[in-house]
Amino acid sequence: MHPSGLREAKNAATRKALARAVLRLSTRDGIDHVTIDAVAAEANVSVRTFHNYFAGKEDALLHFVDTLLDSVIERIEARPAGESFWCSVRAALIETATSPDVGEPAEIVALLRLLDTDPGLAARSRDMDLDQTVEARLTQLYARRGQRADAMYPHLVVHTAITTARVALEYFVARGRPDLSTVLESAFDQMSAGLVHPAPLMNPADASHKEP
């Protein structure tokens, strides 16, 4: 690998490690109690190194959100061209949520809740125009997958799938069973079948719990 490529890879790895450290500490202690000193110690770097990458802990968490979005979009684009858009988004979200690179389910749930409730994170998100950036990237994705960006369908698919994945993650974190992949698959099976009747979880050992 070219030296510049190695440097970029190292920078990306450090940025990811710092973002993960902020997320771990925020999950454990609450974001208000997380200090940059603690983040630097958790990631085994100096405070100066942290500030070389991020202006603050909110920026680090939003970078983590950005990398999650990148992962999902890349996985959707890698799906077979003839596959339905719903099935592609479903597979991409499940693969991302169960990837070892993403972190613990409890951390992802904590991050999603912070995005909803933390004023500092919401303000920084607005400053960075995160919503507009996400929408622009999704519009490009729709076009590449043969979906009209001005149609309701692709937006309905993406937002329904994200909500489904979030509910499944919260269910798993609250109960710790069955395994995460089974819970996610079951939740998406339920959405595919509709919500008129409940579908059982796929794990027979959990058959007494009918709601996905």
Q: In CATH, what is the homologous superfamily of the domain at 58-193?
A: Tetracycline Repressor, domain 2
Order of helices and strands: HHHHHHHHHH
The average pLDDT value, as a whole number, equals 87
Q: What count of helical segments does DSSP give?
A: 10
Cα-atom radius of gyration: 19 Å
CATH topology of the domain at 58-193: Tetracycline Repressor, domain 2
Highest-level CATH class of the domain at 58-193 = Mainly Alpha
Beta-strand residue percentage:
under 5%
Structural class by sheet pairing and helices: mainly alpha
Overall geometric form: globular
Major beta sheet summary: none
Q: Mind telling me which CATH architecture of the domain at 58-193 this is?
A: Orthogonal Bundle
Quick structural overview:
Residues 12-72 form the HTH tetR-type domain. This protein is mainly α and 212 residues long.
Q: Helices, strands, pairings?
A:
Blueprint: H1 3-29, H2 36-43, H3 47-53, H4 57-78, H5 85-97, H6 105-117, H7 119-127, H8 130-144, H9 152-175, H10 180-193
Helix pairs in contact: 1-2, 1-4, 1-6, 4-5, 4-7, 4-8, 5-9, 6-9, 9-10
Walk me through the structure.
The protein is mainly α and 212 residues long. The protein has a domain at 58-193: Tetracycline Repressor, domain 2. Helices cover 72% and strands 0% of the residues. It contains 10 helices and no strands. It is globular and about 50 Å long. Keywords: DNA-binding, Transcription, Transcription regulation.
